Amino acid sequence: MAILKLSKIRRIYRKGDNEVVALSGLDLEVEKGEFTAVVGPSGSGKTTLLNIIGCLDSPTSGEVVYDGTPLKALGEKALAEYRKRHVSFVFQSYNLIPVLTVRENVELPLVIEKRLKPAEIKARALEVIAEVGLADKADRFPRELSGGQEQRVAIARALVKEPYVVLADEPTANLDSRTAEEIVELMRKVNAERKTTFIFSTHDKLVMQHARRVVTIRDGELVSDERR
Amino acid sequence: MGTLWKIAFRNVLRHKRRTAITGVVLMFGIGVYIMFGSMLAGMDRMSIDSMVDYSTASAKVTSPGYLETMSGTPLDFGLDNPAAIEKAALASGASGTTRRTAFVGQLSNYVDALPVMAFAIDPATDGTVFALERAVDAGEWFPGREANEIVLGRKLAAELGLSVGDWVVLSGRTRPGAENADEFVVVATVDAADPQVSNSGAYVSYGAAEGFLELDGLVTELDLALPRAATLDRALDEADALAAALRAEFPELSTRSVKDQAADYLAMRNMKSKFSYVMMLVVLLIGGVGIVNTILMAVYARVKEIGVLRAYGMLGRDVKSLFTIEGVIVGAIGSLAGALFGLALTWYMVEYGIPVGVFFQDGGLDMGNLPLTGSMYGEWKPLDIVVGFVFGVVVSFIAARIPARRAARLEVTDALRFV
User: Is B3 on the interface with A (CB under 8 A)?
Assistant: First the structure.
């Protein structure tokens, strides 16, 4: 069953008198537990697609349905609530909060969500930190970590609230190839063990090799959809 | 909310230099405001003390008729039973009482003459209320008590070229209304803080005035002293209470506290305090601009961080709270430092004061009742310290809301794209 269904998604940005078409009538379905790479040249619309899937941006036209719920039907508040509960993000430049420790960074989505008690939040965060192999770094600050370790923390932060889908925008772009491979392997492992759906954009051929599905877009259109 | 405070507090500590610069601006502003308040209060205290010490006393009892025509210092309205008033005053907490009769006279050194503000006084009790005896800078305070002796203000004596031991002629209108004159020997000069005393004061004993003015026991005013109060406000209130007690006991008389007598000056004092609020507003405006700038810098430095927080579902109002808290923390640090700085400056002003004689001795500057000699001391104004701190924090809160609102309005996608 498709956890995510995008139909005829168009996204047009206006810059002064000009219109920039980022996505033009894109259709896409994603099954639960898929490990999908979105590839394409710069400016092809990858980030826009991820932002729309992540409810950070709204399509100019078209429909996004999450787990049977059309997002259009949700109000702004409900949409933010939906994002808070079911979607997580991993960013290219990690974007950890520098003044919070590893544990506090990982706890953040749950603190924002306000669903669990502090003790439960802490236990859950430590569990996920251990899962990404950083149990001994829980009390360190981001500045004390390597790039690869920071991205592991970002992945732990994304996983801690057990979302439907983790969206990763070029998660390995700032890492050397060996570390990049480690990060993708980690994502793959979590995907296999937790059945968490991953959708990530990348330019990296090595990373693409790990994907079970590769969606290629160009000029805002889906040009190929390869399942392995 | 705990996490917001944690992030805000750690960010403030992380950017120590930025925090310090804004904090120092607030510290100086609030510190100077507090010191200025203390100095104004000190000036008021000195001015009122000077009035109490040389003219108004803590309270003054006269007949209503005398009060109405007081500027002419008439010898027509006396107090019938001053001893009874004195007894009642002492029972109501007065620490001293003395009798005075004011009259306008003409003082001559046999060549030139000047108008003087003259008083018949009781040399034995005058010092329990007024500071004249303590202000003697040459000669001796009425050594003969009842003889034809006169004490003059220092500048008045200098103007007429008089020294201790010189003879003068004092003329004035007697109680029945005739002009009279008599010779007096200058026994002392007084260097009083009150310029009116120094410039035109002339004092003779009741013993000498009795014959000269034909007073026939007339006492036009009874002056009352109170023990020195810790603060000006308390001194004024205690004087009011004493006057009220006597008014209740002697409703037929006019009893006026120093607060009543110095009403004009005290009205000016209120204006001065308004001015000090204006000064604080200017200072806090500068501090507020500093806070806006600091938080704006914090917002721009952390646009991506805002994007991440919003992406994970943090509401705009929480982002606004985060940066508001940062501003308030910076403001509270600066305000606390300002309160402590103000406390230190006030302590110095209270303990050591600043010398005013150096500035005004010969400057010809009209300082009203403000003493022209010695040091000017500050007064403790605990409320100013609290007000300075609270205003600092409140202004920081308001100032921080401006950039915080901007942070809350950032589009998530724009924030995440921000380089």
Answer: yes
